[in-house]
Amino acid sequence: MARTARKTEQDELSGLDRLRDELVDYLGAQVERLADVAGDKVEGLTDQLLDVAENGGVLPKVGARVLQGDSPIKALLGEKAKSIKDSVTEKASSLFGGGKGRKSGTPKVTNIIEHLDVGVPVRVAYDHWTRFEKFSSFTKGVRSVSQGDETSSDWKVKVGPSTRSWKATVQEQIPDERIMWTSDGAKGSTRGCVSFHELTPTLTHIVLVVEYYPSGFFEKTGNLWRAQGRRLRLDAKNFQRYVTLSDEDADGWRGEIRDGEVVRTHEEALEEEEADYEEEEPEEEFDEDEEEAPEGEYEDEEEEGEEEYEDEDEGEEA
Length: 318
Hints:
55% of the residues lie in helices and 24% in strands. By secondary structure, it is of the alpha+beta class. Among the domains are: 18-69; 110-267, START domain (Alpha-D-Glucose-1,6-Bisphosphate, Chain A, domain 4), CATH 3.30.530. A seven-stranded antiparallel β-sheet has the order 1-7-6-5-4-3-2. The chain is elongated. Residues 265-318 are annotated as: Disordered.
C-alpha cells in the first residue's frame, strides 16, 4: 500500500517536471523570437539613421515642419505621403517612357497595320469609308463623328471606360485610291493612311496603316496591352462586314484634297464624271452606224443587180 502511494507521488512529480521543462522551452523560444524582432527593428532604425546621415531622409524634413508649428504626427504623415508620391511618380515615369534611356519629350509610338478584303467594287468601298458620320453605327470604338468641313471632323472615341475627343484633319484624299489624315486630342494623337486596291471588279483590298501616340493614363495603360491595336482591328472587320452586307447605295465624297487643301470639290468631281460619260456615248452611237452600213450597201447592191437583170431582159425582147 505504501509502495503504491510513493509510486503515484513519483509519477505526479515526473509529470510536473515534464510540464515545467516544456514551459521553460516555450518561454525560451518566445524570448528568442522577440530578440530577433527587436534586432530587426534596431537594424531598420540604423538604416534610417544612415539614410538621414547620407541623403537627408524624411526625419530632417519632419523636424523642420515641427519647428514651423506642425504637429509631429501631421508632419510625419505629410512627408511620408510625399515620399510615396515621389516614388510612385518615378516608377510610373520609367514605366511609361520617362525613365532612364529615353529622352524627355519623345513619345512612344504604336504602329498598327491591318489588311482586309471586301467583296465590293473599289468605288463602293471608298465611298463607304468617306461617310465618317456613319462609323458610330457599325464600330465599337467610335461614339460619334461630326463633319466640320471637307477637311476636318470631330471624333469621340472610346478609350477604356472613358470617352476621348479628337480633331481629325485630312491631309490627302484621292478618290478610289487613298486617304491620309492626322488627328490630335488632349490624350494622344494619330497619323494614318488607308488605301484601296482593286483585285477584281467586285473585290477590293484595303490596307490600313496607323501611328498612335498615347499621352493619357488610360491610353498608356491600354497601350501596354496593345488594346488600341486590337480595337482598331476589330472595327476594321466591322467595316468589312458592314460594307459587304450593306444593300444601301453609298453616296460618298468624291472631291480631292492635296496638302490639307481642297483642290477639287465634290460637285466639280461629279460634273467631270458626267462630262466624261457623255463623251463616251457618241462613240458608241458611231459604232452602231458603222455596223448598220454594210446592210445598206448590201441593199444597194441588190437594187443594182435587179436593174442590170431588167436591162438584159429588155435586150432579149428587142
